[in-house]
Amino acid sequence: MNSPRMAFAAKMCHRFLRRFHPLLNQCHLVRSVSSLQKLEEDVRAEVEAKNYVKIPDLLIPLESCHSSNSNPFSFFSSFSQNLQVEVIDEMLQSFIPLRPRSKPKIALSFLLTYTLQSSHPLPIALAVLQRTLRSGCVPVPQTHVLLTSAWLDRRRLSHSVANVLLEMQSIGYHPDCGTCNYLLSSLCAVDQLAEAVKVLKGMGGAGCIPDLNSYGIVIGAISRARKTAEAVDLMKQMVVKYGLTPGQGTLVKLFAALRANREIWKAVEMIELLEKEGHSVEFESYEAVIEGCLEKHEYVLAGKVAMGMTERGFIPYIKSRQKIIEGLASIGEWKIACAVRQRFASLKS
């Protein structure tokens, strides 16, 4: 085991997995050491016989017990690295025809945990992750921590994002957007936001063009951290460079962050950019921007946003409408106040 990597994983596990503690204690179906040893022997026998398709059924008793201390694939550590890769590849290929697709879920889960905790986790763990996701399975929660640890350990060797991803080709696999998106969500889950941004920007070099989910994961995470400068830059890149339509959930998070940071002019400029590029902005985002304007006493700007909002069929909450009119009147902008009031009235507000 790589001690710095495992130390990092242990630290992050303590923070990230506390809320999953009850789930990780449900190991009531397999209690004795002898039964675990027997299960591992049975799995090893099927591996040596290359009867990989029988393994998922063997592991059914472990369905509610996922522990790195009782991994049925731990005997792989006695194999050479090349043999491990060969066997795991054969196993993954044998799982593809199984139906339902999720049948190898337990086997893939333990296999992913084993490879991520092995001395050479990448690129083989990425191949297991890819097969897991393509099987419609969701990795167990601690995968976020283990994957982040393995990824950062590899990146510390000065490998670029693209090069690490392209190492999958050396074992017959190709990186894809789904695998990269899970990596992004893992990095964000353990607050490795700077690395997540690097992966987002570098994954295209491995042939994985970022999609709507890629940007949504990262923009959402850095918005929650109120790193608005990076969030705005990524949103512009997403909309202008790639022509992607941002999800409304992502926009709400970005506008909430801009409001919290009192960067309301940036928020208004973002609305204008989105509309210029032909993307709709929904009610919740407009309302957040208007409330941000009012909090900063930017009444003229609030009126402008409200007018634009009504043109798209939305109308601010009554309290916001009252504050806009009163605010404009308080600074002597009677003409604008009357125009805004008439607009609200025309919509039978």
From TrEMBL:
Organism of provenance: Stylosanthes scabra
One Pfam family here: PPR_3
Assigned keywords, A-Z: Repeat
Stretches forming PPR repeats: 176-210
Upper classification of the organism: Eukaryota, Viridiplantae, Streptophyta, Embryophyta, Tracheophyta
Repeat among keywords: yes
Signal peptide interval: none
InterPro entries: PPR-containing_protein, PPR_rpt, TPR-like_helical_dom_sf
Keyword Ribosomal protein included in the entry's annotation: no
Cross-referenced PANTHER family: MEMBRANE-ASSOCIATED SALT-INDUCIBLE PROTEIN-LIKE, OS03G0201400 PROTEIN
Name of protein: Pentatricopeptide repeat-containing protein
UniProt family annotation: Belongs to the PPR family. P subfamily.
Record PROSITE patterns: PPR (PS51375)
